[in-house]
């Protein structure tokens, strides 16, 4: 049976187990997870937080990470400014990035979620409002959510991946992980 680990990746932690090429040590998965033989199913940038799945099953890893399976990934995104309906509609339709058009996303404005404090905190500016959106995509290009929000004029300030399929961070503190049973079908 495949192993599946849900990990709440803290801010500034690399989505890999080693960082041998860096002149100064950076936090990696090995600082939090001591389970042999598991590897990340996808990536989460160092400056992003939230759900990262790890498994010892290559087939499961591909079904989670490969965009052809269209597994939804939901993000809680704090953006600069307050997106109007036109900006949200553009995200729903798909936006043009340097590497092509994105697939349509599901997006809605939300109240500020009750999340753990980020260290360091997001820079607060009195003159520039911010708000939160919930954004669900079914692909996974490099820094895609950040590039999408910037393309509609609202740069990302904080990015937390909350859900992949039906797996969620609910009740998990940053830096903690849980093992889950895997059945034949993805949630």
TrEMBL record:
Top-level taxon in the UniProt lineage: Bacteria
Keywords: Isomerase
Xref: SUPFAM superfamilies: Pseudouridine synthase
InterPro entries: PsdUridine_s_RsuA/RluB/E/F_cat, PsdUridine_synth_cat_dom_sf, PsdUridine_synth_RsuA/RluA, PsdUridine_synth_RsuA/RluB/E/F, PsdUridine_synth_RsuA/RluB_CS, RsuA_PseudoU_synthase, TruA/RsuA/RluB/E/F_N
TM regions (residue ranges): none
Entries under PROSITE patterns matching the protein: PSI_RSU
Domain spans labelled Pseudouridine synthase RsuA/RluA-like: 4-151
EC number: 5.4.99.-
PANTHER family: PSEUDOURIDINE SYNTHASE FAMILY PROTEIN-RELATED (PTHR47683), RNA-BINDING S4 DOMAIN-CONTAINING PROTEIN (PTHR47683:SF2)
Family: Belongs to the pseudouridine synthase RsuA family.
Protein name per UniProt: Pseudouridine synthase
Organism of this sequence: Novosphingobium beihaiensis
């Amino acid at each position: 049976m495949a192993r599946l680990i849900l990990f709440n990746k803290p801010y500034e932690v690399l989505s890999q187990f080693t960082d041998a090429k860096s002149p100064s040590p950076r936090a990696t998965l090995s600082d939090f997870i001591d389970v042999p033989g598991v590897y990340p199913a996808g990536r989460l940038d160092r400056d992003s937080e939230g759900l990262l799945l790890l498994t010892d099953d290559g087939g499961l890893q591909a079904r989670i990470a490969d965009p052809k399976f269209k597994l939804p990934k939901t993000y809680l995104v704090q953006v600069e400014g307050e997106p109007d309906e036109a900006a949200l509609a553009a995200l729903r339709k798909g936006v043009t990035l340097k590497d092509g058009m994105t697939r349509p996303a599901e997006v809605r404005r939300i109240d500020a979620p009750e999340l753990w404090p980020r260290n360091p905190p997001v820079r607060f500016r009195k003159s520039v409002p911010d708000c939160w959106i919930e954004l669900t995509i079914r692909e996974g290009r490099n820094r895609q959510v950040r590039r999408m929000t910037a393309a509609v004029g609202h740069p990302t300030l904080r990015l937390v991946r909350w859900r992949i399929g039906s797996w969620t961070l609910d009740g998990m503190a940053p830096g903690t992980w849980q093992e889950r049973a895997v059945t034949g079908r993805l949630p």
